[in-house]
Design brief:
By secondary structure, this protein is of the alpha/beta class. It has eleven helices and ten strands. The longest helix has 27 residues, at 194-220. 39% of the residues are buried. α4 packs parallel to α5 and α7 (194-220) packs across α8. Bound molecules: zinc ion (ZN).
Length: 320
């Protein structure tokens, strides 16, 4: 009896210690996926319909229950946007959610708050009543007005009045640039090393996630849920399953967009000299966390060099 009691006490002590350990800045790493600019222009390999079908299949195979798709309704029915509404509906039918990325995808710093909000409203009018719609707004280019604090605050206040929340991204690996480089390479007849492209894509997005994770711990002393900004690209359609596998291997749990946006960090509205970037970046800046607060491969020069060297096997000198 006494021995049993001692064993019990010992077991409880071990359990207590491991709970304590889990609270030092190391809760599980959690991340949700988001895809911007839907319906996007075509990439190097697929028609827009093929791309959507492959992306849906990839997400399903990867076990991603719910990703967020940020739509730009002004692109629907135009050029590659023909059939865009049906493709958006296909994402929703597959369990994903949709939200506002403005009607015409312009920079807030290049227009008035009133014009900007009219554009948001136009997108909301399209989204209204649609299945899978969430009250989230992702700023195009993650541009919250740059150094114009008055405009920034005017838009923030107006979004709130409309019941919209900032659909922040916290992880950015500039996947759109890799897609552009791929399209350019194919157009100019260059040979693409597809497995090297996959590796570069996956490695870059996982590194971007880990960068945000480390910066989050410095900023908040804990691990919030992260949201990665990806785009509706051929690269996503090709490699999303590989990406999710690599994230899991790296210790990440994939969560739904709903769960991620439930984290209290997504209610923040950092006050920084220039509001443009991921939430983690802005919050770290506001708290005075020293640079770098920006994942280095978001620097286009470095990203382009890596693409030229690793995917095109061009000597470094040939890259810009
Ligand atoms: Zn965008």
């Amino acid at each position: 009896m006494t021995r049993l009691l001692l064993l019990l006490i010992a077991a409880l002590a071990v359990a207590g210690a491991s709970v304590g350990q889990a609270q030092t800045p190391a809760q599980a790493k959690r991340i949700a996926l988001s895809f911007d600019d839907v319906p996007r222009g075509r990439g190097a390999f697929f028609t827009p319909d093929e791309r959507t079908a492959r992306l849906i299949t990839g997400l399903r195979r990867a076990g991603v229950r719910q990703a967020a798709f940020y739509v730009v309704p002004g692109q629907i029915g135009v050029d590659d946007g023909v059939g865009g509404a049906e493709r958006i509906q296909a994402y929703v039918a597959a369990g994903h959610v949709i939200a506002d990325h403005s009607f015409t995808h312009r920079h807030l710093n290049a227009m008035s708050a009133a014009d900007y909000l009219a554009d948001v409203d136009k997108a909301e009018a399209w989204l209204k009543g649609r299945e899978g719609r969430r009250p989230w707004f992702r700023y195009p280019f993650l541009d919250e007005g740059g150094d114009d604090a008055a405009k920034r605050d005017a838009v923030r206040t107006a979004l709130k009045a409309r019941g919209l929340r900032n659909g922040y991204a916290t992880v950015d690996g500039s996947d759109w640039n890799m897609e552009t480089l791929t399209v350019q390479a194919v157009k100019s007849g260059k040979k693409i090393d597809m497995s090297a492209l996959r590796d570069l894509y996956v490695e870059t997005m996982v590194q971007a996630a880990d960068f945000a994770d480390r910066l989050s711990i410095k900023t908040w002393g804990r691990r919030p849920a992260q949201v990665i900004v990806l785009h509706e690209t051929d690269l996503a359609a090709l490699f999303v399953e590989d990406l999710v596998r690599a994230l899991r291997t790296d210790g990440w749990t994939i969560v739904t967009a709903d769960e991620a946006y439930g984290d209290p960090i997504f209610r923040l509205a950092p006050d920084v000299p220039s509001a443009n970037g991921t939430l983690v970046e802005l919050a770290a800046w506001e708290k005075g966390i020293p640079e770098p607060r920006w994942y280095e491969r978001n620097g286009i020069k470095l990203a382009n060099r890596l693409f030229a060297e690793r995917v095109l096997h061009e000597p470094a000198a040939a890259a810009k």
